[in-house]
Amino acid sequence: MxxxxxxxxxxxxxxxVILDSNVVKTEAYFRTAKNLGATDAQALxxxxxxxxxxxxxxxxxxxxxxxxxxxxxxxxDAVQALLDEFSRELExxxxxxxxxxxxxxxxxxxxxxxxxxxxxxxxxxxxxxxxKRDLTKHFDGGLFGSPDNKDVVLAREIANGNLQLxxxxxxxSKYDFESSTRAGLDFVFVSDxxxxxxxxxxxxxxxxxxxxxxxxLLA
Length: 219
Hints:
Blueprint: E1 9-12, H1 22-35, H2 40-52, H3 58-69, H4 76-96, H5 103-109, E2 114-122, H6 123-132, E3 143-146, H7 150-159, E4 167-171, H8 174-182, E5 186-190, H9 199-205, E6 209-211
Parallel strand pairs: 1-2, 1-4, 2-3, 4-5, 5-6
């Protein structure tokens, strides 16, 4: 049983936690590569790397893809072409994917805490999406994403007083656990929509509390 009343802040990852969007993003990586001339093998290399590095910025993934898979220089223009195509591929899927059950009830149960989104996704894209889907109202602590990584954002928001401890991070990736632990936050792993392979063994090894989804925080 997690006592939510102890927390001054609750930080949520977006994909796989608030939105059932992990599969949407994985498919978008594959189509982006294919649309820009990749072979199936090259596109699969990008999607495999994306899944392996859940929660890491797309800027890093496309930089890696250009250098390591295509053997091309990761110029600003080349990365931007991939980013633009990826955003186009994502837009429709993100508007249609499911929102986690129990969000409003959980918000009411944690009225003492600031809520924040911290995603590996593009910050402006998340802000636009949450506005369109009427989700921004829940997150009075702000909506944050790449190009800044999660370690940078957590350190900055703690330093400026926006993110107050004790705080809880709710995520679905290894990087969520690692970055939140480095910043001194408690962590809960939600498993229903995760793409992390062998997550059960990882959570057991690191003694991580696992819930199916965010509605179980109210159990």
